[in-house]
Amino acid sequence: MPNAAGNSIAENLASVRERMDRAARRVGRRADEITLIAVSKTFSAEAIRVAYDAGLRHFGENRLQEIQAKRPQLAGLDATWHFIGHLQSNKVRPAVELFDRIDAVDSVPLARKLDSTAAEHGKRLPVLIEVHLGSEASKSGVEPSGLPALADAIDLLASLDLRGLMAVPPYSDDPERVRPHFRQLREFRDALSERLGRPFPTLSMGMSHDFEVAIEEGATEIRVGTALFGSRPGKAG
Q1: With left for phi above 0 and alpha for psi between -120 and 50, is residue 14 left, alpha or beta?
Q2: Please, which pLDDT band fits residue 5 given cuts at 50, 70 and 90?
Q3: To which H or E segment does residue 182 belong?
Q4: What is the helix (H) or strand (E) element at residue 154, kind and residue range?
Q5: Residue 234: DSSP 8-state
Q6: CATH 3.50.50.60 fits 9-229, yes or no
Q7: What is the pLDDT of residues 154-176, one digit of tens each?
Q8: Phi first, then psi: what are they for 75, rounded to 5°?
Q9: pTM greater than 0.85 (yes/no)
Q10: Number of H helices, E strands in the chain
Q11: Maximal C-alpha separation, the chain
């Protein structure tokens, strides 16, 4: 299935995996330590199925109405679905029903609502805390100063499984300018692990334009959309 860039999703996946491998080897890591999440928001169920057939198993979405429409067309796929955007409290119930993981918890009230809803569904829900890095007012996430208290609160919630941290740093055409943010998130994760006395294996950071640097700084999950699927519908370039 050709995408907007003219390449097939399978060809793009091979290119992304090669980039992952090179980045991992530069710092003595293995690419198979890193989970590739295909950011499939705005792309069709057909494109997701093609990506699945090419070998992808993790998909990221952030629009509930869109995923509600697509999921029936994707029945039978043994995939893991990540909610990767800002989750409003009034949409917690459908999010818990539709997604396997919530990757962007940013407040205690949201965490408590996720916990009670997951308990009603008899599931222990893996979650990540989203940390706000940089000064962009448009970005969500807990401020670094509030991270310890939020982590402490989530750690007490029986139906949530806190796995680690995620962040979307400020965009730059030069990935090296983003490196300090990735390093900072890793340091926050390490401090959290020391504070709570257990490992937090997941560090979700890096997108199509900067994931190599994120991998060099310790990312265990990267979120890639355009490098796999091509330009998003309605966007040029």
Answers
A1: alpha
A2: very low
A3: helix 179-196
A4: helix 147-155
A5: T
A6: no
A7: 999 999 999 999 999 998 999 99
A8: -60, 140
A9: yes
A10: 9, 8
A11: 49
Q: What is the arithmetic mean of pLDDT over 133-149?
A: 87
What is the token pair recorded at 40? 């499939």
Query: For helices 108-120 and 147-155, what crossing angle results, to 10°?
Result: 20
124, 144, 158, 233 from 188: Cα distances, Å: 24, 8, 23, 36
| Encoded tokens for 17 | 């995996």
Q: Which residue has the tokens 């509030």?
A: 146
CB burial of residue 164 (10 Å; 0-12, 13-18, 19+): buried
Which segments within 48-177 are labelled E, that is strand? 58-61, 80-83, 101-105, 125-130, 160-166
pLDDT band at 236 (very low <50, low <70, confident <90, very high): very low
What token pair was written down for 166? Answer: 């995620």
